[in-house]
Amino acid sequence: MAQSPQSVRVQGQRIHQRLQALSEFGKNPQGGVSRIAYSDADLQARQYVMGLMRDAGLEVAVDLAGNLVGTRAGSDPSLKPLLVGSHIDSVPEGGNYDGDVGSMAAIEVAQVIKESGIRLRHPLQVIIFQNEEGGTIGSHAISFGLDEKLLSLVSQSGKTIRAGTAALGGDAGRLAEAVRAPGSIAGYFELHIEQGGVLEQEKTDIGVVEGIVGILHSDVTIDGFANHAGTTPMNQRRDTLLSAARFIEKVNQIVTGIPGRQVGTVGWIKVQPGAYNVIPGRTVLGLELRDLDQGKIDDMFSRIRAEAARIGSLNDTRFSFTEPVITHPALTDKRFQALIDASARRLGLSTRLMPSGAGHDAQEIAHLGPVGMIFIPSVGGISHSPKEFSRPVDIENGANVLLQAVLGFDSTN
To answer: Residue 1's pLDDT is what?
Structure first.
């Protein structure tokens, strides 16, 4: 006899054991993993995960984009599939929780549904997306497609995206067939570690993600004049590094001077010619802006460019900006937010509405249908590091919220 959907729970110890087993693939001396996409460790981990998916009663396939897709049929063939999942690739010298928690929890949800004898109305698809850390490649491939420029990019593994996709079992020559149409899914839920310290600091169990921030990248080049550092008077210098220092400070002032949770970063800087005794004649730096509101991002960028012109006039240097590369914000569905919040509160868990400052596969899948994201605390706010850690109780809580959200959606939609 099938259990009541409200009474079913995940097996936290099983999730923990699987996370430990997964951490052996690409394990590094620092205690984390270097399981970069398309590496041998990635290929081996995918084989392990496919076995778990089959044990959970899923029909497993590699789609044309190289994603792992496990499907469980629903009782109503007219309904669109409900998706859950995440990724298992890591950054170099990464941790054991980013992506892994959501992936193992998604499989656990499928297994609990099977073991409980519950028959969902919607088809359920567990998807482990390929190369999330290299630019949400797998989820972008099925949402928008991959163009020649993207396919030719060289990944951290040394393989191009094209070669890496083929190594995973995908077919770069047929990627157009992998693209799903907008509206083709019932929805998508993703559980993820917060990758920040807000939930832990506030002692909150569950983050209900209101949206995934948009990101703007632009390379900023400052041109001046390289001259002898010993013989050129201070008031005659066209020092681009001085202009860069003023610019970096102004970026911080502009971003912090606006109410809200937006962030701005100058993440790298290159100085030419780079010698003790030469005034820098060219400096190039990388600007990044993030917020849930694309209008606010555009406004900050406009203000920053205006200030750059003013800064350049102080010492006869010239600023130029590359055409910005923009990833637009993706808001989660209000109904999914409410469902996640209600599911958590029924389990006796505290919740908080919050943005995601990092990119996720959900951002791409939002093009196909409504999405919801669940955050659990990250100890110390640490991520992309071997020291990344989320407590087993928090992982279990998040997985139970995911399970109840899936069951709740299926019963009401």
So the answer is: 54
Per-residue exposure over 28-39, b if at least 16 CB sit within 10 Å of its own CB, e if not: eeeebbbbbbbb
Report d(CA 98, CA 358) in Å as an integer: 11
Q: Specify whether the CB–CB gap between 309 and 283 falls below 8 A.
A: no
Looking at the DSSP bridge assignments, the partners of residue 354 are 209
Q: What is the distance, to the nearest Å, from the Cα of residue 153 to the centroid of all Cα atoms in its chain?
A: 19
The alpha carbon torsion through 106, 109, 115, 120 (nearest 10 deg) reads -110
Q: What is the dihedral of CA 335, 340, 341, 346, to 10 degrees?
A: 120
Residues 6 or more apart whose CB falls under 8 angstroms from that of 187 comprise 82, 83, 333, 336, 369, 370, 371, 372, 409, 413
Position 2 confidence tier, pLDDT thresholds 50, 70, 90: low
CA separation for the pair 193, 209 (Å, rounded):
11
**Residue 172: what pLDDT?**
87
Tokens encoding 209: 């993600």
Percent of the chain with pLDDT over 70: 100
User: What are the start-end ranges of the H helices in 269-391?
Assistant: 294-314, 334-346, 361-365
Q: Is the pLDDT of residue 3 over 80?
A: no
For residue 142, give the nearest of 87, 213, 64 by alpha carbon: 64
- Compute and round to an integer the Cα radius of gyration of the chain: 24
pLDDT band at 313; cut points 50, 70, 90:
very high
Average pLDDT, the chain: 95
The SS3 assignment for 337 reads helix
Over residues 78-86, the mean pLDDT reads 97
